[in-house]
Amino acid sequence: MTTARLRLGAAGVATALAAFLAVGLYGARGYLDNFLRYRGFDPPHEPAFVAKPGTASRIEVPSAALGGRAQEAYVYLPSGYAQHPHRRYSVLYLLHGFPGRPLAFLETVQMGIVDDTLTTKGRAQPLILVMPFGSTGTFTDKEWVDGVGPGNGWGTFVARDLVHYVDAHYRTIATRAGRALAGLSEGGYGAIDIALRHPREFAVVESWSGYIWPDKLRSVFGPKLQLLRSNDPRLLVRRVAPQLRHLGTYFWFYSGSTDRLRSQNAGFARTLGRLRIPHTYRLVYGGHNWSIWRTNARNAYRAAAERLAHG
Question: 3-class DSSP state for residue 10?
Fold first, then answer.
């Protein structure tokens, strides 16, 4: 009897321990999933005064530059898009960093909330947000450039295939005057590089904590880095400066006060000044992280909205 009771007690303890561990693992997984989606911040929550929030949808964009593959992207249609069927909208294209995914702009940076909040209060015009996925995997680095090998035209995918698809499927202002290209970290480098290589596509260019000196990645730029110089903003900007001045392209970018990339950006700002290219460079408080990108999201949105054509 005593032995049976001991066995029952041991079995109960084992069951309880297993249940405890299962709950703990479930909770840990939930916490990890939440952290990866929101980076420790609260999930997006629309303010009560936003009566009709914008809507997000996933699309697949056929891309000749990527070898004919359909590439994932997300589109955020601003508040009121469905209610104003004759209105056309400017577009803000947003390039993620590495490693990264496009939905971070909505889930962590909360650009959809920024869009709805500013436009509902009448502090900025509504913009369509377009967030492409710039790689074949979260941890596969493509640098947003036209790299070596077939099917690696990531810059052309953004400037040509994605732009054409968005203009064909949504009510956009389908000219460069209605397009801004922005990105954070590696996406900031990508935005500048793409805009300099395709100067007729975007009127506004933004880099949020991006870098100016391209990383020497042989998997992207070639075994002898033969494509590095043609994707170096320091060289490209001098080459296309007359065209940028003629078109009135505007650069808006910032670095954190403790970001090691700040010297690169300050040097690029000096170059833009010498070349008489319109720009704003800001050194803001912070480092190189999600907090600084969230904090400056409204300023970045307004900077684009103020310069883009109104529908």
Answer: helix
Angle of CA points 91, 96, 101, to nearest 5°: 110
pTM confidence score: 0.89
Residues paired with residue 128 on neighbouring β-strands, in sequence order: 91
Quick check: 193 and 121 in contact, CB under 8 A? no
d(CA 261, CA 209): 7
**C-alpha–C-alpha distance, residues 252 and 281, integer Å:** 6
* One-letter amino acid of 305: A
Count of C-beta atoms within a 10 Å radius of residue 247: 15
Q: What six digits make up the tokens of 127?
A: 């913009």
What are the residues facing 245 on neighbouring strands?
Answer: none
Q: What is the pLDDT of residues 248-306, one digit of tens each?
A: 999 999 999 999 999 999 999 999 999 999 999 999 999 999 999 999 999 999 999 99
